[in-house]
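Data follows
____________
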Amino acid sequence: MIAACGAVVRGAERILSALACACLAVIMLCVSADVFMRYALSRPFAFTYDLVGTYLLASVFFLSLSEAHGWRAHVSVESLIRGCPPWMRHGAEIITCIVGIVVFGAIAWFTGRRALGEFALDTLLTGEVPLPTWTAIAMAPIGTGLLAIRLVLELAGLLLGRSVGLDPVPFAGLHGPARGFE
C-alpha cells in the first residue's frame, strides 16, 4: 500500500516537474521576445513582467520542489551527520521528516486557503493585462502539499525500516559522477 502511494507521488512529481520545465521554457521565450520587442521595435510586451514574475517563477519553484527533494538536490548540512553513528543519522532523518511535514503541511494549508479565497473573490492583478491572482498562489499548496505527502511516506519508511519506493535516485549530473577540485 505504501509502495503504491510512493509510485503515485513519483508520478505526480514527474508531471509537475514537466510542467515546471515548460514554465521555464515559456519564461525564456517571453523574456527573449520582450527584449527583442523592446530594443529592436520599441514595443515591449505589457504582460511579461507580471506573467514571469508572478506566475511562471512561482510555478517553476513550487512545482519542482518535491522532486528536487527526492533527488536530494536541496541544501543540506551533511558534514554534521556524516561522522555520526547510524542510529543518530536515522533519528536525524526522522526528526527532519517530522519538522518538514509540519512546516510544509502548514504552508500548503494556509496558502491553499488563500488561493481558494482569491478564487472566490475573483481577484485580478492591476496591470496592463488583468490576470487572476489565485492561479499564482495555487502553486504553493500544490508543491508544498506534494512535498508534505512525500515526507509522510518517507517517515513511514523510516519508522517501518523498509523502502517505500521513494529512495533518492543517484544523480551523476551531465558529466558523470561529481569530483572534487583537482
Summary: The radius of gyration is 20 Å. Residues 170-176, 178-182 have pLDDT under 50 and may be disordered. Helices lie at 2-40, 48-63, 65-70, 78-82, 86-121, 134-160.
